[in-house]
Each structure stands twice: as C-alpha cells, then as structure tokens.
Design goal:
The chain is an alpha/beta fold. It folds into two domains: 299 residues, Collagenase (Catalytic Domain) (3-Layer(aba) Sandwich), CATH 3.40.390.10; 198 residues, Neutral endopeptidase, domain 2, CATH 1.10.1380. Helices cover 55% and strands 6% of the residues. It has 28 helices and nine strands. The strands form three sheets. A four-stranded mixed sheet has the order 2-3-5-4. The protein has a three-stranded mixed sheet with strand order 6-8-7, covered by helices on one side. Strand 7 and strand 8 form a beta hairpin. Helix 3 packs across helix 18 and helix 17 packs across helix 18. The chain is globular and about 75 Å long. The two termini are 21 Å apart.
C-alpha cells in the first residue's frame, strides 16, 4: 500500500484515541470554513494541517508519519532494554547490533576503514577476468553489483520457488532521472555530479579528478538506465515474466560467470530462471566487454561508497543526506541517529524485534477484532461479486473462488525465524550489518528449488502499512498499522470501517486491480476472465487512469495515470467495499448521530483523516515519478468524487467539485 499521517507523536495519538471512545472524530481537525462538497480533504483535515506544518526532518507529514514515529518510540524502548539481554539469545543479538550502530565514536574513528578491503580488491583489477571475479563475489552481498540473483515464486506455478535475475537499483531514483530532458531532471543530474565529486573527494581522490570521475559514473549508469523498463512497464506481470534455462541466461551475457555465481549462491542445477528485464542483462554484457576497465573501477569505488555512506563517519553520512534527502525530497534536517539504527534492526532482525514488539503492543483481542473486520470485508466483496451483473457466470465463479482463497495475515507471522547464526559484534557496526545481511541472503536463497511457504509475511510487525501478494493471494496487515487512528479496538464501527476497513478493502482490491486481476486463486499468472469480461474490466480501469491523468497538482506536477491506476483502483474499490461492510454491520438499524455527524458522515471523515498528509514540492515530484500511489489529497478527493454514497451523506450536488458527472464516475463492480 505504502501510505502515511497525523500530529506531534504519542500525545496527539492519545488525544485522538480518547476522542475515539465517543465518535472517533476530532472536530478540532476540521476546517469548517471549507465546504465539504468543494474540497473534502481540506474540510476533514484543514485545521490540523495548518497547525502541523511539515517538520524540518521530513519530506512529508501526516497520519502515517505520526504513527510510524510513535511505533519507533516504542521500538526504541525495546532496543534499549535489549542492550542488557542475556547472552546467546536473539534479543541479545538485537541489543548488540543496536549498540554497535549507536556507537558513533567508534564509527567516526573507523573512517573509511570498513571499505578498505573492497577498495583494495577494486584497485587490484587488471583484466576483464579480474573484473568478473569481483562482481561475482558481490553477488553474495546482494546489492553491490549490477545484477541480483534471488528466490521468487514461479508466477505460473506459485507453489515453486525458482531463480529470479534482475538488475539492481542505480544511483538515481528512477531511469527517468537519467533520461528526462525537463529542467528538473537536468538540475538533479547536475546536483548528482556535484554529490559524487564531493563523495570521492572525501574518499581521498584528488579534487581535480573528481568531476571527470563523476561524469564517467553518470554516463556509465545512463547507458544501463536506457535498457531498463519504465515504472509502468514493470507493473505488467507478463512483461517481466521471461523464463529461461541457465544456457539461455548465459547467452544473454556470456562474459559473466553465471556458473560461478550460481555455485557460490548454492543454486541447484536445472532450476528455472526468470529474467525480469532481458534487455538490461544484454546491456550489462555490453558494458562488461566494452566499457573501459578504468570506468568500471571508478564506478565500483563509487558503488561501494554509495551503498555504505549512511553507515560511515559523519562527513560521508552528511553528504549522502544532502543529496538523497535535501536535493531529492526537500528535507532540511537529519533525524536522530537512533531512528536509523532502529530501522536497520527492523530490516535485518525483523522476527527478533517483531516478537518483542508484538508482546508489548498487540494484544490478542486486537487480532481477534481485526480478523472479524477482515471476514466482514470478505463477505461484502462476495456480495458485490455476486451482484456484478456485467460478469459472465464463469468469470464470476472464478472471482469468488479467488476471494475465498484469500489468506489474511494479521499482526505477525505464524512462525518466527532464529538469528543464532548471525555474528554481531559491538564496536563493528558495518561488519555486523554485513554479517546480518549475508545471513538474510543465505536464508532467502536456500528457498530456491523448494515449495513456496505461503505463510510467510512480507512485512515486519511494527510496519505502518499493508499489502497484497499476487503469488500468495494473501493480504497482510502488520501489527504496526493496527493502532489508532486506523484501528480502535473499542471505537464506533463507522470509524473503524472508514479507516482500517478501507485499508482492508484496498488490499483485497489489489487482487482484482489492473495488475493483480491477471493472477488466479492459486496465485498463478493465468487469464481467468472471459474475453468480453476482460474488455469490460479494462474500460473500468481506464476510467480511473483517465481521471488521474487529468488532475493538475500545480507546480507543473501531474500524476501518471497508468502508474497509479492499481493503487487508485484499490482506494475506490476498498472504500466502496468498506461502506457496504459497514452497513452490513448495522443490520438494518440506523447509526447514531455522534458529535453532530451521522454514521455515514463519520465513515467518510475517518477515511479522509487517513489522508491527512502534506508533502514538500520536491517530494511530490519524486512521488509522481517513482511511486504508484497518488498524492494523499487526491487519494481522498478523487476517490470520493466517484461515490454517490458520499454525495448523499454530505448533500453534494452536480456542479460541486466533489461530484464528477454521472457519466464520468468510475465504478469497479
């Protein structure tokens, strides 16, 4: 899903939670000078937005940020307690790792010491064979090289784990930053050249050589970017499905030592391989054979530095922050170090931290109530599918079958992983980080050739987000998001259905959006629609695409409708389902009027409060280029402008900005 919220941390959350005992609506957040039928997002959130400008440490500020901050504060307490945990336990490993990260004095004293071994290997490259040897060794670390071998579920047989081969991320956020001819793209490339030159100077390169090195690095990566799919192309699961044998892969890039890589990674022989972007692998081959060795070595030194800069001494971390956060997103100040350290613990020790987090912050009753909400939402979708008269009986039967196969994952995984093999050492942060990352990679790669474990969660317990997996046909709701203001264990149903209900419906909807709808009940990429029904579905999806293509965000910023279609469909379909489930829960009874609002009004206000979020202009530009999620304001307003139920709740009429003409209103089912 990937979303955000709210006001200054735990105090504000507590205040809203207390309000939630009554109606769940904080009237002080509303801007009642704004008419709800003109700009409902502003009406629901305006006063709160005015009183809560974006803090200097953030690119955006809203609901998701506040809850993430609150969860991080909870995590911090857990980590500080883990500092004195018993030896030979996962809790002790977590404590030692956190301590090594927080030991700034040792990190500062180490300087570039943690990079010396890698830099020496690069300096020793004399031949193409040497180059391939180093790149092959980088595969064990996962993100350093230009290719990444990983495990993935076979999209045509989701029960099996096969090999995935893809390109790794380049230095700029997206290929469009390399290729764009607009003024902003050129400005970022200019800033990137300054950034690389500065980083290389910090590394010890002569100042008069760094500009040329930076230009060589940009040109090198631009050639690779040209071979990458666009973000829209990557959303097509058929386009990124290119299954082949090892012999086929070797034919794409014969200069690379694929045999050695697969041996190093323990990949069993004869396994099916899926190459997400064959054209990229061909360009990788071209660079291997034709790019000068000096260019390769310059790029490799930059790559090692760029991947580790955040974890090095202050000068490197500050320069990285300047480009990655200030230039790209407009952030003014760095967050305290403990937040970075907590995030790394969550990334590398998710189950160890998750167990401790859930024990303190996710009681069994919350999970029971959430399971009940999910079941009610599934029933609402079942009813909706049964009533979708535009579907042929065969398509409807397949759709219901897919719904009934949904696997909800709530709060935390059914089994926890052990970290006993991770060698963590206080006083060696980068070494501990690399050891944890290597073990995580080993565990993942060991799944290749074995049946897919569909019980695994793809998010950590403290995460404030939710997701849908097409290959597992599962919906995931971590404990981190099952907190106020998304979910109240004892609040009025209108608020829970409008907030977390819409989130549940959103993720369920991904199973039937423009992308997820191409996989069947078993998670296999298979056309289960009749041809005529698929055409009707595409018309409905195109309605959403066209709506977002037409939205002007100001400052020359526009959504790419095709990029955001899936998420926008999730919002519209999810809220529609949540509304139905809410009315099902009333069982024909009238909802009470609380704090001056009807049940329907509270439902829609709770939904809009989820999107109380504002972002810097730089962040908006980055989001519309790289993120399939629309800007928060339009996740609220664009969705609601399609819903007659909302129009009726607030007496909106044709001609109001929140009412699309009936013949333009998008409906999914």
């Amino acid at each position: 899903m990937g979303k955000r919220f709210f006001g200054l941390a735990a105090v504000a959350l507590l205040a809203l939670a207390q309000t939630g005992q009554k109606s769940g609506i904080d009237r002080s957040a509303l801007d009642e000078t704004c008419k709800p039928c003109e700009d409902f997002w502003r009406y629901a959130n305006g006063t709160w937005l005015d009183k809560n400008p974006i803090p200097a440490q953030y690119a955006r500020w809203g609901t998701f940020n506040i809850l993430r901050d609150a969860n991080q504060e909870r995590t911090k307490v857990i980590l500080e307690n883990a500092l004195n945990a018993k030896a030979n336990t996962d809790e002790r490993s977590v404590g030692d790792f956190y301590a090594s990260c927080m030991d700034e004095r040792t990190v500062e004293a180490a300087g570039i010491g943690p990079l010396n071994a890698s830099l020496s290997r690069i300096a020793a490259i004399r031949t193409r064979e040497n180059l391939v040897e180093v790149l092959r060794s980088w595969e064990l670390q996962g993100s350093l090289g230009l290719t990444r071998v990983s495990n993935q579920a076979d999209r045509e047989n989701s029960k099996a784990q096969i090999v995935g081969v893809s390109g790794t991320a380049l230095s700029l956020p997206d290929r469009d930053y390399f290729l764009g001819r607009d003024a902003r793209s050129q400005e970022i490339r200019d800033e990137f050249l300054k950034h690389v030159a500065k980083m290389l100077e910090l590394l010890g390169d002569p100042k008069d050589s760094t500009a040329a090195s930076a230009k060589a690095i940009l040109d090198f990566e631009t050639a690779l970017a040209k071979a990458q799919f666009s973000r829209v192309e990557r959303r097509d699961p058929n386009k990124t499905l290119n299954k082949m044998t090892l012999a086929d892969l070797k034919a794409l890039a014969p200069a690379y030592d694929w045999d050695g890589v697969f041996k190093d990674l323990g990949v069993p022989g004869g396994i099916t391989i899926n190459v997400s972007e064959p054209g990229y692998i061909k360009t990788f081959q071209t660079q291997l054979t034709s790019a000068p060795l000096d260019t390769w070595k310059t790029w490799m030194r930059w790559r090692v530095l760029n991947e580790r800069a955040e974890f090095l001494s202050k000068a490197f971390a500050d320069e990285r922050f300047h480009f990655r956060s200030t230039v790209l997103s407009g952030v003014k100040e760095q967050q305290p170090r403990w937040k970075m350290c907590a995030a790394q613990v969550d990334r590398l020790f998710p189950d160890a931290l998750g167990q401790l987090w859930v024990a303190k912050h996710f009681p069994p009753e919350a999970k029971r109530r959430m399971a009940e909400l999910v079941a009610n939402m599934q029933e609402a979708l079942r009813q909706t599918l049964q009533e979708a008269t535009w579907l042929d009986p065969a398509t409807r039967q397949n759709a219901v079958k897919k719904l009934e196969a949904f696997d909800p994952k709530i709060g935390y995984p059914v089994k926890w992983r052990s970290y006993e093999k991770v060698a963590v050492k206080r006083g060696d942060f980068v070494g501990s980080l690399e050891a944890a990352a290597a073990e995580d990679r080993r565990v993942s790669l060991a799944k290749i050739g074995h049946p897919t474990d569909k019980t695994e969660m793809n998010m950590t317990p403290p995460t404030v987000n939710a997701s849908y997996s097409s290959t597992a046909n599962s919906i995931t709701f971590p404990a981190g998001i099952l907190q106020p203001p998304f979910f109240y264990a004892d609040a009025d149903d209108a608020v829970n259905y409008g907030a977390i209900g819409a989130v549940i419906g959103h993720e369920m909807g991904h199973g039937f959006d423009d992308q997820g709808s191409k996989s069947d009940a078993d998670g296999n990429l298979k056309m289960w629609w009749t041809e005529s029904d698929r055409q009707k579905f595409e018309v409905r999806a195109n309605c959403v695409t066209s709506q977002f293509d037409s939205i002007d965000l100001g400052n020359g910023i526009k959504h790419n409708g095709k990029l955001v279609t899936g998420e926008a469909m999730g919002d519209l379909g999810g809220l529609t389902l949540a509304y139905r489930a809410y009315h099902n829960s009333l069982k024909g009874k009238a909802a009470p009027v609380l704090d001056g609002f009807t049940g329907d009004q509270r439902f829609f206000l709770a939904f809009a409060r989820v999107w109380a979020d504002q972002a810097r202009v730089e962040q908006q530009r980055l989001q519309v280029t790289t993120d399939p999620h629309p800007i928060a304001k339009f996740r609220a307003n664009a969705t609601l402008s399609n819903m007659p139920e909302f129009h009726q709740a607030f007496a909106c009429k044709l001609g109001d900005k929140m009412v699309r003409p009936p013949d333009q209103q998008c409906r999914l089912w």
